[in-house]
Amino acid sequence: NEAAAALAxxxxxxxxxxxxxxxxxxxxxxxxxxxxxxxxxxTVNVRMRCEPEDLLLIMHRLESEVPLVMVDDLNVxxxxxRRRVSGNVVEVAEALDVxxxxxxxxx
Length: 107
Description:
By secondary structure, this protein is α+β, with helices and mostly antiparallel strands. It is built from two helices and six strands; from the N terminus they run αββαββββ. The strands form two sheets. A four-stranded antiparallel beta sheet has the order 1-2-6-3. Strands 4-5 form a two-stranded antiparallel ribbon. A hairpin with an 8-residue loop joins strand 1 and strand 2.
């Protein structure tokens, strides 16, 4: 689907422009619309790994630029890892694991 690919590319460009080098898109997959609407809804399921500051910038840009992109089903998890440092076990926070659907409409 060309529209879903364009939406996914838009996210990739946005991440490249506003986010740090550590912010990565892990996957982008088109989601088939289940409901017939007046305008065609295009949805892409996204999984990313990034820091909170980058996530805020990206979410703000997605929902405030034209054409409007809506974010649904946002799920954010901060994985924790235990590492041994100088003989002590230390909990280390890793990048956010972010999953969401982004949608836009075609005429």
